[in-house]
């Protein structure tokens, strides 16, 4: 999982603009608690608000549900904002060393001038020059739904990850160091599987009845019972 460079960030921006109609977005960021067995003599370091012990997986996801940046190993008691502050990615974000594209003018919003490229996160994250969080409150109008739809990308990626790898559906009993390696491995494998399926056409067989008719679904013949292969 190479560190994204300026051209990689530009490609991510184009993906969010095309799929989610969200301009200047370089990724959706969120944290996931990976439930583990409490290490010996760890006290409340790994104890989180869900009353379990966990490591924090902090991830930046693009519009195709690919993990572009992951940081694993934060204590479960830390919030998303605290994990971002303590991880190397958060330091680079605050220090301006991520090689993000320069500020640009958004079409249709020229009156606002140059606007920065941003990550979108939840309310647990701080508001920074390159990190956009939603307005607090429940009864909001305007463009808040667009922000929410862009943020859902990272939550969907976590859902795909958990559905593919059974280790995320139970308590992991290995040491925190081994757990961290396993989580990183699943993120890389997740990207491998996603890239194999992105852009793939449907595997449903179609057949045209004649040259003048549109393709239709092929009729399924009667099958014998317990014959999954056929």
UniProtKB/TrEMBL annotation:
For this chain, one GO molecular function annotation is: metal ion binding
- Ranges for the DDE Tnp4 domain? 29-191
| Keyword Electron transport attached | no
- Family the entry assigns: Belongs to the HARBI1 family.
Query: What is the organism field in this record?
Result: Champsocephalus gunnari (Mackerel icefish)
**What would be one Gene Ontology cellular-component term for the protein?**
nucleus
Per its UniProt record, what Pfam families does this chain match?
DDE_Tnp_4
Q: What is this protein called?
A: DDE Tnp4 domain-containing protein
């Amino acid at each position: 999982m190479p560190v994204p460079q300026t051209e990689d960030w530009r490609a991510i921006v184009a993906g969010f603009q095309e799929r989610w109609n969200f301009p200047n977005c370089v990724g959706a960021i969120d944290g996931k608690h990976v439930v583990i067995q409490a290490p010996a003599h760890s006290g409340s370091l790994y104890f989180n608000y869900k009353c379990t012990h966990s490591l924090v997986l902090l991830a930046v996801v693009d519009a195709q549900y690919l993990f572009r940046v992951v940081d694993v190993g934060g204590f479960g008691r830390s919030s998303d904002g605290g994990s971002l502050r303590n991880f190397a990615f958060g330091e680079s974000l605050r220090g301006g060393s991520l090689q993000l594209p320069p500020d640009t003018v958004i079409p249709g919003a020229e009156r606002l001038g140059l606007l920065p490229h941003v990550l979108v996160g939840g309310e647990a994250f701080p508001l920074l020059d390159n990190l956009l969080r939603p307005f607090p409150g429940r009864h909001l109008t305007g463009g808040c739904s667009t922000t929410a739809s862009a943020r859902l990308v990272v939550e969907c990626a976590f859902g795909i990850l958990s559905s593919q790898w059974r280790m995320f559906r139970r308590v992991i009993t290995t040491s925190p160091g081994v757990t961290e390696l396993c989580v990183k491995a699943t993120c890389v494998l997740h990207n491998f599987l996603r890239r194999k399926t992105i852009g793939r056409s449907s595997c449903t067989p179609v057949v045209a009845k004649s040259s003048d008719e549109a393709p239709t679904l092929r009729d399924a013949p009667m099958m014998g019972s317990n014959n999954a292969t056929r």
